[in-house]
Amino acid sequence: MRTKDELFRAAQREIASRRQYAVMQAENARRAAFAAHPALAQADDAQMRAGLALAKAAALGGDVEAARTALTRADEALTAATREAGYAENAFQPAYACPRCHDTGMYNGNPCTCVAEIARRLRREEINAASPLGLCQFSTFDVNRYSADIEPELGISARAYMEKLLHYCENYAQKFSSKSTNLLFMGHTGLGKTHLALAIADAVLGGGHDVLYTSAAALAARLGREHFDFDSSDEWLNACQEADLLILDDLGTEYITPLTISVLYELINTRMLTERPTIYTTNITDQSVFVARYTEKVASRMLGGCKMFKFFGSDQRLQS
């Protein structure tokens, strides 16, 4: 996973490549047209020479008005030659993907919106590659797959409960900000925890925020390798710390070591201090097991700073 800065630079490189391609295509079209229509090439050459004559007159004190008139006539002649050859007036202009910045990445002195759009797409591609379900959406979360029978622990059906949870998550994503609370989704395998977490990620990304997804096992393994690689700068940890929203999936599946506990505490603590929300999912439903696995120091930081939701029902992946 890339940091925000790395993602921004990748988006800028893509825009630069896009601009280069547009210019090259326009130049190829221009050369082909001029080869097929000599009169068009002559008119273009005359316009270029008229432009140079105007620049020379302005620089050396010549007859600027006469040079400007000559350039106007050359422009008109080129327009007429282009039309007679069967081409639109702008046929040889680069077809830039972004009409605002012409694929420069800058608009009115600021990064263009197209840079952020590309960065969001690149992040979505990362999440899709790393997550088991791809980037899910609220519209594909089917509450009818949950039982309509009363769940004793809830006093209502799992279906009614999950419908309320779905609406809560939709509202959470819509109003997401640095002030949003951390969430902890707890429950057995296949109950939709990752689906809802990724649906939030999809909506929050669409709202212009940066989102990073990783499984706990992948994070622990990667950070362990970086810890023993003295040439590494812990890029994954930096990316996880600075993302506007972090999805930390499947807590409890990672290999626990003192290093894992230390890094997890650093990550959780840093994100809380910098007001960057995190969504955790886990199959662990007993808080005492959480404390035993992650130590009281980490568990209290995690559980105490989260709004917890327990998922009910049967494994959705086993249903046809």
UniProtKB/TrEMBL annotation:
Instruction: Please give the biological process terms from Gene Ontology that the record holds.
Output: DNA replication
Pfam families in UniProt: IstB_IS21 (PF01695)
Task: Quote one Gene Ontology molecular function term.
Answer: ATP binding
Organism of origin: Subdoligranulum variabile DSM 15176
Q: Which NCBIfam families match?
A: PRK06835.1 (NF005304)
Q: What is this protein called?
A: DNA replication protein DnaC
Q: Where is the AAA+ ATPase domain?
A: 179-303
